[in-house]
Amino acid sequence: MTDTSANPMADNPLLARHGEALDLFTERVHAVRADQWDAPTPCTEWTVRDLVNHLAVEQMWVPSLLREGASASGEGEGDVLSGDQLGEDPVATWDAAAAVARTAFREPGALERTVALSYGASPATEYCAQMTADATVHAWDLARAIGADERLPKPLVDFSVREVAPYAAELEKSGLFAAPVEPPPGADAQTKLLALLGRET
Q1: Is 37 exposed, middle or buried (0-12, 13-18, 19+ CB in 10 A)?
Q2: How far apart are alpha carbons 200 and 33 in whole angstroms?
Q3: pLDDT tens digits for 23-43?
Q4: Three-class SS of the chain
């Protein structure tokens, strides 16, 4: 009889980094004071609420993309998840969204699937890696906006640099990221990562 009580995906390094990135962003969300939700962020067109909403909606997409073969092309469910989804309790909404995304990625076989993203089909492993790097960098954005600890864990920084570096120059074209900037001489890994994504520290 096969033991299915343990999830073999739990020890997957990609899932470990993904979980750490969600935990990091969650910690920052829980640090937002009631008077900070309308504060500006390094993402120039977004307030703190806009930033958290962006990440929450990304997490809300995960189950349907992985389990149901939905498309993130902006049709169908994309209309349902447009606009502000945070409601009256942004922190609880974020916590719920992060939980469903974490669960969906950790289901047996989830990382072996292909997902339909806005730019085309992508292996679920690449999708998870992108989500991990996105949550990591936006955790810094949120920390900067609310005056929290801006240090990012080294494993997440190293992971995100490897993930982002090959296509950093293309991200500016998406309209979601500023152009890469030149890091200062002797910059550490975190500063180099942020510079790749147009952030000046």
Answers
A1: middle
A2: 24
A3: 999 999 999 999 999 999 998
A4: CCCCCCCHHHHCHHHHHHHHHHHHHHHHHHCCCHHHCCCECCCCCCEHHHHHHHHHHHHHHHHHHHHCCCECCCCCHHHHCCCCCCCCCHHHHHHHHHHHHHHHHHCCCHHHCEEEECCEEEEHHHHHHHHHHHHHHHHHHHHHHHCCCCCCCHHHHHHHHHHHHHHHHHHHHHCCCCCCCCCCCCCCHHHHHHHHCCCCC
Q: Between vectors from CA 100 to CA 131 and to CA 158, what angle results, nearest 5°?
A: 25
Comparing 101 with 44, which gets the higher pLDDT? 101
Sign of CA dihedral 70, 73, 79, 83: positive
pLDDT digits (tens, 9 = 90+) for 4-22: 334 445 579 999 999 999 9
Domains of the chain: 12-152 (1.20.120.450)
- Using CA atoms, how far residue 81 sits from 57, 84, 100, 154, in Å, is 7, 8, 15, 33
Residues in the chain: 201
Name residues whose C-beta falls within 8 Å of residue 200's C-beta, 6 or more positions apart in sequence: 181, 194
Its pTM stands at 0.86
